[in-house]
Amino acid sequence: MAAPILEMKHITKIFPGVKALDGVSFDLRAGEIHAIVGENGAGKSTFIKVLTGVHQPDGGEIILDGKPLVMANPNIAIQHGIAAIYQHAASYPDMSVAENIFIGHEFRTGPFISWVKARKEAQKLLDSIGANFSPNASVGALSVAQQQMVEIAKALSQNARILIMDEPTAALSKKESEELYSIARSLRDKGVAIILISHRFEDIFGLADRCTVFRDAHYIGTWDIDEVDESLLVHHMVGHVIEHYYPERTPHPGDEVLRVEKLSRTGYFRDVSFSLRAGEIVGLTGLVGAGRTEVVEALCGVTGFDSGKVIVEGREQKYKDPKDSMAGGIGLLPEDRQKQGLLLPWSISKNITLPIIDKCTRARLFMSGKAEKTISNKEKEQLAIKAPDVETAAGTLSGGNQQKVVIAKQLAASSRIIILDEPTKGVDIGSKAAIYELMAELAAQGVAILMISSEMPEVMNMSDRIYVMSEGHVTKEFTDVKNLTQQQILEAAMPQERTA
Ligand SMILES: Nc1ncnc2c1ncn2[C@@H]1O[C@H](COP(=O)(O)OP(=O)(O)OP(=O)(O)O)[C@@H](O)[C@H]1O
Ligand SMILES: [Mg+2]
C-alpha cells in the first residue's frame, strides 16, 4: 500500500461556543478519491478549511510528504499543490476564463503580463479536462458546471496534487455530474489525490475509493468503499438506525387552492397548467433545466409571466414580488437559498421570524422578543438546526444548517400554500427524514404543498400526484403514484424527439 501523501492528526478547531472538530484524523494517498461524509454541521467544511489554511487549528498537526507543515495561510496550501473547489465557485464573473485561471500567478515578460500566453495555456488546460468553451468567455456567462471546470483548470495550472471538492455536484444536473465524475477519475488516474465531500450516495459509491465518516466533530472511521454499503454508512453517520424514513400518510385532499392555467413566459416555459388542493403534496419533477423553477418564480412574482392565469383560492392573482405572494399565503423556498433566502449576518431567530414580523407590522402589531425566541426555538428543535442557540449568526452555520433555517422560515410563516424547490438538496439523511415528517404534518393540517424535486425516490414516496416537465412544458400528470415506476417518470421527463 502506498504511503499517504497527507496525514492530518488529531485536528481540533474551536469556534466561540462550538467545537467544530475534536481530535479528527485523516490520511490521503496519491491517486485515490477519498470521500468525507457526515451530517450537516459534522465539521467537514471546517476540516477542509484547516487543511487549506483558511482556519488555524487549535490542536493537531498536518503532515505532507512525511514532514509537518504549518498552513499559516491559503497561499502556503497553494504552494504545496493543495487546491479546493466549492459548490459556489469563488471566481470573478466579469473576467474571462483565462484571467480567472491565471489571476495571482500570471505569466510575465519583464513588468508585463502576457495574456496571450495565458490564453494559450488556458486552452490547453481546458482541452485536458474536455471543457468545450473558450478561454475568452466571460465566467459570469457560464453555467455552474462550467464555472467548476474553470476552478479545476485553475487548480491544475497551480500543479495541484491534492484536489478538494466540497459538494461539487449539489448544483449540477445528472449529465453535468457525470462529466465532473469523468474529469475526477482521469485526474485520479494521473496520480492526483482527491478529497470529495458530498451528501449524495451516488457520488460516494460511484466515485470514491475510500470513505471517512465524521460525526459531531469526531472521527468515526475510514473504510474501503466496497467494505461498506449505504445503510452501514448511514448508521455510522447518524449513530443510530433511521426507521421511518418516509412518513406514513393518509391524504385527505380538500378544496382546490391553487390553479395555474396556460402560464407562459417567452423563452422559459409555455402553456403550463396544474392545480393544487389543500392537504395535498404534489411533486413537480423533470430534468434540471426543464423550467420548473422558472414556473414557480413566475407565479410567486420573483419574475413574471406573459400570458395565462394564476388563481389562488378562487381569485386571479398577479403578484408583484415574493413579499406580495407571501402576504397572499404562498411561501416559496427558493432553490438558491444562500443567495435568496438568508441574511447571513442576522441571527437564526431574526431570519426565521422575518416574514412574521413583516405581517405584524402590516397589521400594526408588535412581536415581542420573547415570542420571536419561542417560535425560533421550536423550529430549531424540529429541524435539528445545529447551533449553540437561536442568536447565532446564520452566516456561521454549516451549509446544510443554513438551508434548514430557510425552511424553518417558510414553516413559521404559516402559509396556506408552500412551494419547496429541491427541499433536501445538500441536507443530510437524518434531516431529510425530519423535513419529510414536517411536510406530512403540514399537509395533515390542510397546507397545500408543491415540491419541486429531481430526486426520484423522494418524488415517488412523498407525492400524492406528480407533474412532469420537459423543455418548458408539462408533459404528464400521474395520479396513481402507488403503481408508478421510475421509468415512466423518466420517459415523460426526456426531451421529446421532434419530427422535422
Ligand atoms: N466561522 C464560524 N464561526 C462559528 N462557527 C462555525 C464557523 N464555521 C463553522 N462553524 C460551526 O462549526 C460546525 C461545523 O460546521 P461545518 O461547516 O464544518 O459542517 P459541515 O460538516 O461542512 O456541514 P454541511 O454538510 O452542512 O456543509 C457547525 O456547528 C458550524 O456552525
Ligand atoms: Mg459543509
Structure characterization notes:
The protein has helices at 44-51, 74-79, 97-102, 115-128, 144-157, 174-189, 201-207, 230-238, 292-299, 322-327, 337-340, 348-362, 369-382, 399-412, 429-444, 456-462, 486-493; strands at residues 6-15, 18-28, 33-37, 59-64, 67-69, 82-86, 108-109, 112-113, 162-166, 193-197, 210-215, 218-224, 256-265, 269-277, 281-286, 307-312, 315-316, 330-333, 417-421, 448-452, 465-470, 473-478. Helix content is 34%, strand content 25%. The strands form five sheets. A six-stranded mixed beta sheet has the order 6-9-10-3-11-12, sandwiched between helices. The model has no long low-confidence stretch (mean pLDDT 88). It is an alpha/beta fold and 500 residues long. The chain has two domains: 6-238, 3-Layer(aba) Sandwich (Rossmann fold); 256-493, P-loop containing nucleotide triphosphate hydrolases (Rossmann fold), CATH 3.40.50. The chain contains 17 helices and 22 strands. The radius of gyration is 24 Å and the shape is globular. Helix 12 packs across helix 13, helix 12 (348-362) runs parallel beside helix 14 (399-412) and helix 13 (369-382) packs across helix 14. The chain binds adenosine-5'-triphosphate and magnesium ion (MG). Adenosine-5'-triphosphate (ATP) binds next to strand 2, helix 1 and helix 14.
Topology:
Layout: E1 6-15, E2 18-28, E3 33-37, H1 44-51, E4 59-64, E5 67-69, H2 74-79, E6 82-86, H3 97-102, E7 108-109, E8 112-113, H4 115-128, H5 144-157, E9 162-166, H6 174-189, E10 193-197, H7 201-207, E11 210-215, E12 218-224, H8 230-238, E13 256-265, E14 269-277, E15 281-286, H9 292-299, E16 307-312, E17 315-316, H10 322-327, E18 330-333, H11 337-340, H12 348-362, H13 369-382, H14 399-412, E19 417-421, H15 429-444, E20 448-452, H16 456-462, E21 465-470, E22 473-478, H17 486-493
Parallel strand pairs: 3-10, 3-11, 6-9, 9-10, 15-20, 15-21, 18-19, 19-20
Antiparallel strand pairs: 1-2, 1-4, 4-5, 7-8, 11-12, 13-14, 13-16, 16-17, 21-22
The structure holds adenosine-5'-triphosphate (ATP) and magnesium ion (MG).
